[in-house]
Sequence to fold (200 residues):
Amino acid sequence: MPKTPPPPAPLTAPDADGAFASFGPRMKALRRLKQMTVEELGDAIGVNKAHISRLERGLKTPSIAVMAKLASALGTTIGHLVGETLDRADIKVTRQSDLAPRYLADEPAQHQFAPLLHGHSVSSFEAFVVYPGTDGDAVRAQHEGQEMLYVLAGTIDVVFADRTERLRAGDCIHFPGYLSHSLSRVGRAQARALLVLSAR
Fold:
């Protein structure tokens, strides 16, 4: 007696291992880029903020109707939301030829900066190649968010109120921006570091 074939699987949206693997993080990134809160996005598409939160954490899979509303509210397409297409603005390349260091106006320490992100912030961070001068105390800084410095070449002192951290090529430091600090090059050789500033 022939076996009865199993019933066909119900038609469902792609699972989290497929097209929706990056849906939540992409949705969250687009929301933040639009400077919308979870509650504001929920209001814009007619769902509560808890539902938005579950979508962003990958705990729920959106219906096609919800995806269409999200795409509209976030100024994108469904294909972009599920990772099938890329927005040209998603990937930014800065060529070495564009990274000539620039002196900052009225910069007594002669620090130089080369913006890696075309001079703009991307979502919540900015990145530069910094070439510290020798007079760090002349340009002490404090700012919101976090700061990370990764030394690419030379030796750099990061000076805080009660301590100095000396960094050499390959060393990395991270600290909250509210700490008063300054950078200075050690020795005559040019120093170079990757500087990343976050808004949070």
Strands lie at 102-103, 112-115, 125-131, 146-153, 155-159, 164-168, 172-176, 182-185, 192-198.
